[in-house]
């Protein structure tokens, strides 16, 4: 057995949750974009004979995206739990991995990429929770703004990792490592 059931469960739950997190950001930046919807609402309401200010239109646009953005927080908690789950796995999981030294240069690079990804989700969870609970934690406004900026920067790393990883494993499975993807499904060595 290469990957234990508990590790495979972690992998697929984590994949699902990260994709949902990216989905909420996608919706926030496109269909539920605050600026665009505020303009749209202002124009449409004006056509109907109701002139409203851009400030009021922005309040409406924010209200429209609010329920969707709740999912960023709910699945944010899920991600934080998965990070803890992954840390526990370091100690109790016995999935079989080759030692770092025995790997080819390419596979070493892949391992390093996974480590960077782990660093990124730890940071996203800690910073996300800090932003969400800034009042309870009495974090100053200035600091929250800085944390938000960093949260948005590290987001880009995750955005790059996901398609790179999926393309990487599909290419590897189709060429030199037939069955790599099924290994992450059934756990058996190729
Ligand atoms: C949906 C398509 C996906 C497939 C087919 C897939 C498949 C795989 C496979 C086969 C491996 C083992 C690769 C190896 O031995 O080098 C792996 C590892 C990994 N995957 Fe995915 N994956 C997918 C999506 C994701 C997503 C969306 C994420 C996170 C956002 C993710 C995170 C990881 C991580 C962190 C590892 C390294 C695990 C470790 O060894 O510590 N995967 N994946
Ligand atoms: C893969 C993980 C995550 C990604 C990719 C991600 C991405 C983002 C992005 C891009 C933003 C900026 C949105 C904008 O202003 O346009 C954001 C904001 C935010 N995120 Fe995350 N995030 C992740 C994890 C988390 C977690 C674990 C939490 C904790 C519950 C969280 C809570 C927040 C909060 C509270 C904001 C501020 C929203 C606002 O300014 O109104 N995020 N996130």
Describe this structure in words.
The protein is built from 6 helices and no strands. The protein has 190 residues and is mainly alpha-helical. It is elongated. The mean pLDDT is 97. Bound molecules: protoporphyrin IX containing FE (HEM) (2 copies).
Map the helices and strands.
Blueprint: H1 5-29, H2 34-47, H3 54-92, H4 105-132, H5 141-174, H6 180-186
The protein binds protoporphyrin IX containing FE (2 copies).
Residues 18, 21-22, 25, 28, 72-73, 76-77, 79-80, 124-125, 128-129, 131-132, 148, 151-152, 155, 158 line the site of one protoporphyrin IX containing FE.
How would you sum up this structure in a few lines?
With 190 residues, this protein is mainly alpha-helical. It has helices at residues 5-29, 34-47, 54-92, 105-132, 141-174, 180-186. The chain is elongated and about 70 Å long.
